[in-house]
Amino acid sequence: MKKIKVIVAKPGLDGHDRGAKVIARALRDAGFEVIYTGIRQTPEDIAIIAQEEDADVIAMSLLSGAHNTLFPKVVELLKEKGLGDRLVVGGGVIPESDIPFLKEKGVKAIFTPGSKTEELINFIKENVKCDEE
Amino acid sequence: MKNNPEFIINGILSGDRAVLARGITIVENSLYGAEEIISKIEEKTGHAFILGITGPPGAGKSTFTSSFVTELRKQNLKIGIIAVDPSSPFTGGAVLGDRIRMRVHTKDENVFMRSLGSRGALGGLSLKTSRIVSLMDAFGMDVIIVETVGVGQSETEISKTADMTAVILAPGFGDDIQALKAGILEIADIFIVNKSDLAGADKLELELKQTLKLNYTDTSIPVIKCCSTRDDDFANIYSEIKKRVDYFKQEKILDERRLNRKRRDIYDLIKSEIERITEEKITKLGGIDSILNMTDGKVYLTEELKNLIKM
Fold first, then answer.
1. Are A52 and B113 a contacting pair at CB < 8 A?
2. Most buried of the four, A124, B37, B137, B139, by CB within 10 Å?
3. What is the domain range of residue A119?
4. By the 8 A CB rule, do B49 and B142 touch?
5. Do A36 and B95 count as a contact with CB atoms less than 8 A apart?
6. Contact at 8 Å (CB) between B308 and B285?
7. First to last CA, chain B
8. End of a domain among B250, B284, B299?
9. Domain boundaries, position B306
10. Who among A31, A38, A131 is closest to B100 (CB)?
11. How far is CA B214 from CA B149, B175, B187, B222, B244, in A?
12. Contact A44 B107 (CB under 8 A)
């Protein structure tokens, strides 16, 4: 069976990566292959990395407040690269009121502070369309 | 994206990055079409030079690779990077972090990087690494850099996959070079003493040179000192490695290694075909439990069982 491959990325000017690292570790322990990109990535970088790695999931963490700009931009670039079928999720300090907008733009789920890592893991397991043999 | 082998093969040969990425996934996971893709692409390989980078964890393999790629790009070469990181033996999961050091190349269309989990292989690479090298070769890469997991002393698989292997060391890993003699130190075609700004680098360089003089038949193995975060060091590194490559070509070492690689690859193919036949046979005999019944629970190839296997 194909292993689930997840990109954990931090878009934009935000160096707070503790959350992203906790997520990367939790996903590893769930048996996924996690590519951690490091901080301060542009949406273009994230889309290119997702393409080269042929990732199933693009998980972004953002605490700077720029989520309404950067998350949809990544979704758009993924579509341009023919990766519109990939699961995009986000997390960080994101107000409840922004979530409907982000979902409308193609971010499939948002995990705010206090979310359990199991929620994300289960969400990925349920929603990744893995093209198996 | 379409997954049929023909589409993937054509895409790779025509230089489509997205298709290369998908092809690697298919081969890495042995998905439908993997064997066909590999067999059809085989004849298009042989152009790329394959450089292995290995060394202990934290020696600076990824940082070195990144700076070296910057230098190679000045020569306008197309570069493939395969970076292997360890998979957990408990969950199978992995954190692949080599991209963090190589981000300057992300947007460069002439650099393609792929991260791989080692997936239980113990030689410093993953089982499918050499197949993925072939895909990148057929794609048209001039140089393919294969970075192993951080290794100890005995992970020498890279020397069978690469045309040339650079072993990267750094000061502070213990000065007892003697203890490192067997294993990875034996597979080095080039030694890189990284982190030359740290105390102990000169000593490490000296010890390596002395060890080489005493122990090896090939006394031409260079020891190059550098600081991977200093781009200026890499013009020298490029010319040293180039010299070494020319030497390999001139002395037919390269040809010999490639022939050895073919030998090993065909051996592996035969082995996996025999494994497949084994599985098939066991199923035909009614599964492993009914075979155990046949032998009255003994772990022993009875004459009856031997005859059944031959049938």
1. yes
2. B139
3. 5-125
4. yes
5. yes
6. yes
7. 44
8. B250
9. 262-310
10. A38
11. 29, 17, 16, 14, 21
12. yes
Q: Residue B283, Cβ neighbours under 10 Å: how many?
A: 10
Whichever domain contains B169, its CATH number is 3.40.50.300
For the question of an ipTM over 0.90, the answer is yes
Per-residue tokens: B46? 């042989």
Taking a C-beta distance cutoff of 8 angstroms, is the pair B194, B233 a contact?
no
| Phi, psi torsion values for B296, nearest 5 degrees | 55, 35
CB-based contact (8 Å) between A36 and chain B?
yes
pLDDT in tens, B223-240: 999 999 998 899 999 999
Å from A119 to nearest chain B CA? 18
Residue A53 lies in a domain: yes
For chain A, say whether B73 makes contact (Cβ under 8 Å).
Answer: no
Which candidate from B3, B29, B114 shows the least CB-CB separation from A3?
B29
Residues B3 and B75 in one domain: no
Q: Any chain A CB within 8 A of the CB of B110?
A: no
Question: Within a domain: residue A132?
Answer: no
To test the contact with chain B by mutation, choose from A52, A124, A125, A133 the residue with the greatest count of B C-beta atoms within 10 A, namely: A52
Q: How many domains does chain A have?
A: 1
Asked whether residue B290 is domain-assigned, the answer is yes
Number of domains in chain B: 3
Domain co-membership, B73 together with B128? yes
pLDDT one-digit tens code per residue, B72-121: 999 999 999 999 999 998 999 999 988 998 999 999 999 999 999 999 88
B255 within domain boundaries: no
All residues of chain B having their beta carbon less than 8 Å from the beta carbon of residue A31 are: 88, 91-93
For residue A130, being part of any structural domain is answered with no
State whether B27 and B145 are in the same domain: no
